[in-house]
Amino acid sequence: MILPIVAYGDPVLKKKAKEIDQDYPKLDELIDNMWDTMYNAYGVGLAAPQIGLPIRLFLIDPAPFAEDEELDEAEKEQLKNMRMVFINPQIIEEEGEEWAFSEGCLSIPDIREDVFRQPDITIEYQDENFEKHTKTFSGLAARVIQHEYDHIEGILFTDKLSSLKKRLIKGKLANISKGKINVDYRMRFPNMKKAR
C-alpha cells in the first residue's frame, strides 16, 4: 500500500526516533508499504519518520545511481544490488575527506542542494529478520545511508546547509510546509488533516 510522505514542517521529521523490537506490530507489512511508497515516488531511500512514524527504521535501494557514467564498474554493481532494510542502526564511524553531492529528499520536493559528507562509514544495524550486522560502505552507498540515518536522528539535509543557502530556500520550504507544491506522489502536509 502506498502511504503519504510527510512534508517538511511536520514535527515528526525533527524527532529523534525510538528503537523497535521484533514485537513491533505488523512490521513486515510496514516494510512492504515503505518499499511501495518509496518506489512510487522514485526515491532511493525512505525512513519511517517520512511516513509519520518516529522509529529507527529505514530502507534503501540506490540502484538508479548505478546509471552514473562517472562510477567505476565495482561501485555500479554494488549500487545495483543494495536493496536493504536497516532497523535500529548506529553509525559507529565516519571517515575520509568530506565531499559534496547534490541531495534531495521526498519530504522536501523540488529542492536540491550540495551537502558535504564523509565518504566512508561503518554502521551496526539489524535487518528485517533482526539479525545483527556491522558493515562498511563508501561513496554514494554511504551517502544514501547517511541521509536516511539523519532522518531517524531528526536531521534534514537542509539543516546541513550554510546560513546563506538556508535563507535562499526559506520561501520554498515555507511553501512546501503549506502544501503549495505540485508533486506526483501522495504527501501529508502539516496543518492539513488529509493527505492529497
From TrEMBL:
It comes from the Bacteria. It catalyses: N-terminal N-formyl-L-methionyl-[peptide] + H2O = N-terminal L-methionyl-[peptide] + formate. This is Peptide deformylase. Keywords: Hydrolase, Iron, Metal-binding, Protein biosynthesis. It holds the Pfam family Pep_deformylase. Its EC number is 3.5.1.88. Belongs to the polypeptide deformylase family. The lineage of its organism: Bacteria, Pseudomonadati, Bacteroidota, Flavobacteriia, Flavobacteriales. It comes from Christiangramia oceanisediminis.
